[in-house]
Amino acid sequence: MRGPDAVPAAPPAAPLLFDASTLDALIEALHVKGFRVIAPTRRDNALVYGEIESAADLPAGWTDIQEAGIYRLMPREDGALFGYAVGPHAWKRFLHEPVLRLVSARAGPSGMTLDEADGVAQPTAFLGVRACELAAIARQDQVFLDGPYVDHQYAIRRAAVLLIAVNCTAPSGTCFCASMGTGPRAGRGADLTLTELLGGGRHVFLAEPGTARGAALLDAVPHRDATPDEVAEAGAALAAAEGRMGRTLRTAGLHDALLAQSESPRWDEVAARCLTCGNCTMACPTCFCATVDDTVSLRGDHAERWRKWDTCFSVDFSYLYGGSVRLSARSRYRQWLTHKLATWHDQFGVSGCVGCGRCITWCPVGIDMTVEAGAFLEASGARGSAPPAADGGSR
Amino acid sequence: MNSLEQHLSEHPFFMGLRPDHLALLSGCATTTRVEGGEFLFREGQPARSFYVVRHGSVAIASITPHEGLVVIQTVGDGDVLGWSWLLPPYHWHFGAYAVEPTTLISLDAVCVRGKCEHDPVFGFEIMRRFAQVMASRLEATHLQLMNVYEHRR
Amino acid sequence: MSTVAEPPPVGMPAGRPPRASASAGEVMRPALHRIRRLRRETHDTFTVELQPEGGGPCAPWLPGQFNMLYVFGVGEIPISISGDPQSPVLVHTTRAVGRVTNEMSALRAGDVVGVRGPFGTPWPLEAARGHDVAVVAGGIGLAPLRSALYGLLANRGDYGNVVLLYGTRSPQDILYRHELERWRARFDLEVHVTVDRGLPSWHGNVGVVTTLIHKAPFTPRQAVAMICGPEVMIRYSGLELQRRGVEAERIYVSMERNMKCAVGFCGHCQFGPYFVCRDGPVFRYDQVADLASRWEV
Q1: Are residues C104 and C136 in the same domain?
Q2: What is the model's pLDDT at position C7?
Q3: What is the mean pLDDT of residues B94-104?
Q4: What is the number of structural domains in chain C?
Q5: Looking at per-residue confidence, does A142 or C54 come out higher?
Q6: Given a cut of 80, is residue C63 above it in pLDDT?
């Protein structure tokens, strides 16, 4: 995906295998190379991303129960290190930070001056990136790197990141990556993709390097070639995961259905439930809206501009001329869903949704966007079984 | 066709009228000239005529408590002025004065109303034209009412 | 087209920053400009003239584009550039309606503000060559169109009939009055002004700006129209122009939405599928007519 030595290795090397106990050595190798390692950790009854020192910090033996408005952790019967789906955090919090200083300015005798720009990013390894999340990172890459302007702060953070993806074998009740064509198998763009294989007395990881950098990392730890059986086992686990998705979303005709029904009473129905709290936008790994806040010191001689995550659900979001363009909750929910599933296509050529299910899980009132989208499709008369959309992502 | 009929036929408002209808109309028409500042009619007066502006500018105005006389619209060459004559109680709701020396064709209300009653086809042609004008004016008034240049707080 | 910074060599100390990207550089960082002059235009509108701090020409821009102006400690707002493209001075006219603009209106010559830009799509001065041009301005909408008029007049021979239709609230709200009077005196430019309400001392037109359209001296079938003003006024002017026979594909409008970044990153200015900061603010009317007539889009 990004970074000059994140060039895909061509042709794809044969899958390798290493013992789960080797994960520590892998993490140590990353530390030696100057990377901090961020991975899922258990905190506050959720699996959130945090810096880890060793494999012992991973949430071994835990899984998640997810439903609309429900998130619970439950112990597993095995010691799987990655036996869960995704938690409330998205990797965007490290690439497109929730709070970021943009400009620092001073007021002096000869007027305003600007301080030097902040410009360094710490080399970081993301360990445990799910297929949907890989696709989500690709979505935000499109926004911040591929347009006529480049987000400098995003670019330097993105270039400093090494991606270790983990294929999903335990999808949750709100997952629907298969519908969006983004998973459960991780697509292109990761430096290394792991599949956890547990059972029969052994605990190993199938490892597929995606870049020269990923291959070099693996070279630093004990590993061997995977056998065809092991490769098949991983394939079977993924196929099983694909069949156990908690939700489905038919995408064929969805863009047109949503745009054609902008005045549908269904929007009022959802609006009656929606609190416009914006949880969905905070949890969503592709949502990128932000605002800029201005601060000034008490003495009035030092001013800063801070970028902060924002949500299109807030009334102020569309403020203009003493009023807001989108005053009603109805119009704000419509804006979010229409952008995510329809106009994102017009802007970026792909769907804005990667099927991670976070918006369903973390909605306090349990609004399920797959149900809402399905209702619009139904009303538009779109018929026929729709195979998983091919527009989803970096397959 | 006399010169009055000629002027009527050339006027955008009456364009397309049949010659016999033009003749009917001209029987109710006279040419009028007013000086700048001269009032054509005042609010509350009986609406005895309506006007088509040939050349010049007429301000439609009303007295307001705080600002005095306020102009709410100006009409110019090719426009028609007044429809209070069409419907009872036939009283002007606004005043109108010439902004500059203006030539108009004045049409007698009683005369035209009578001919409309007598010749329904002629009546329809007149009503149709006025309906069009009223629709445009209403739309323009809507826009004016929306006070689009104001900053809402 | 991905232009991305080189990653820092792994393991290198923090002091070696990556090479800046080949494209726009740091797009959120303002360039300091000094106020050359700040002048009150009407009771709530003012014009500020800027030059880059430390000399040098201002960044090249096209009529229709806008800058983000930053007032120290208060914030940034998007303002269309309303000056002459051939002038080395950046001119912006704005209403003082919010925190930032009110603070800005209290600044003086010599004060420093931040400028990011120019951003956005320009008026179709190229595409309009060989056509009659109808410029329709409502209220403060005259400001972004004034730069278009400078552009048209600079190459007057390239265009057919050029007419400016300008409507505003009252005679006291007329912008650029002296300039309008000078333009009105030209033989190759028609200037028609109307106010929503007038007092007897006003001898000009009274009525909404749309009423100027049906009599304006241009040939509808080959004219290009440019509209700027309050959104409602844009909609009705667009309708009136179409009624007169100007095709929607030859009508251009300047839209406005809340903007925080002006570069398509913050999401605030979205208008249907469009980012007004990047796909606009100048749009072709047929692209946005449907969107503009819907509520709360």
Answers
A1: no
A2: 36
A3: 95
A4: 2
A5: A142
A6: yes
Domain of C201 in residue numbering reads as 132-292
Cα-flanking dihedrals φ and ψ of residue C194, to 5°?
-140, 155
Inter-chain residue contact A321 with B153, CB threshold 8 Å: no
A322 in reach of chain B (CB within 8 A) = yes
Nearest CB partner across the interface for B74, out of C140, C173, C207: C207
Set of chain C residues whose Cβ sits within 8 Å of the Cβ of A156 = 5, 8, 18
The CATH code of the domain that includes C65 is: 2.40.30.10
* Among the ranges given (A99-103, B73-77, C34-38, C56-60), the one the predictor scored with the smallest mean pLDDT: C56-60
B151 contact A CB<8A = yes
Contact A155 C112 (CB under 8 A): no
C85, C119, C153 — which closes off a domain? C119
Dist CA C166 CA C184 (whole Å): 12
Shortest CA distance from B151: residue in chain A: A321
CATH of the domain at C252: 3.40.50.80
Q: Cβ B71–C210 below 8 Å, yes or no?
A: no
Q: What's residue A378's pLDDT?
A: 94
Same domain, C288 and C144: yes
CA distance C241 to A243: 57
Q: What are the structure tokens assigned to A264, written together?
A: 């549908």
Beta-carbon pairs below 8 A across chains B and C:
74
pLDDT of residue A10: 53
Q: Could you tell me the pTM of the whole model?
A: 0.89
End-to-end alpha-carbon separation of chain A, Å?
12
Angle, CA of B53, B59 and B65, to the nearest 5°: 155
B148 and C233: CB-CB below 8 Å?
yes
Asked whether the beta carbons of residue C200 and residue B59 sit closer than 8 angstroms, the reply is yes
Q: Which residues of A268-291 are buried (b: 16+ CB within 10 A; e: fewer)?
A: eebbeebebebbbbbbbbbbbbbb
Is residue C41, in this structure, part of any structural domain at all?
yes
Mutate to test the interface with A, among C270, C278, C288 (most CBs of A within 10 A): C270
Task: Note whether C105 and C175 are same-domain residues.
Answer: no
Tell me what the mean pLDDT of segment C123-127 comes to.
Answer: 97
Residues facing residue B73 across a β-bridge: B60
- Band (pLDDT 50/70/90 cuts) for residue C295 is confident
Half-sphere exposure of A54 (CA within 13 A, CB side): 6
Shared-domain flag, residues C36 and C157? no
Q: What is the DSSP string of A54-122?
A: SGGGS-TTEEEEEETTEEEEEE-SS--SS-S---S--THHHHS-SEEEEEEEEEETTEEEEPPPP----
**Percentage of chain C with pLDDT > 90?**
85
Under-70 pLDDT residues of chain A: 1-12, 322, 382-395
Residues C160 and C240 in one domain: yes
Residue C43 shares a structural domain with residue C184: no
Using a CB–CB cut-off of 8 Å, the residues of C that contact B are: 44, 95, 97, 138-140, 168-169, 173, 194, 196-200, 202-208, 210-211, 215, 229-230, 232-233, 236
* Domain match, C137 and C272 both: yes
* pLDDT of the residue at A345: 98
Q: Which domains does chain B have, with CATH numbers?
A: 3-146 (2.60.120.10)
Question: How many beta-carbon contacts under 8 Å exist across A and C?
Answer: 182
How much is the average pLDDT of B107-131? 94
Contact assignment for B69 to C199 by CB distance below 8 Å:
yes
- Chains contacting B with at least 3 CB pairs below 8 Å? A, C
Q: What is the pLDDT of residues A272-299, one digit of tens each?
A: 999 999 999 999 999 999 999 999 999 9
Quick check: A154 and A144 in contact, CB under 8 A? yes
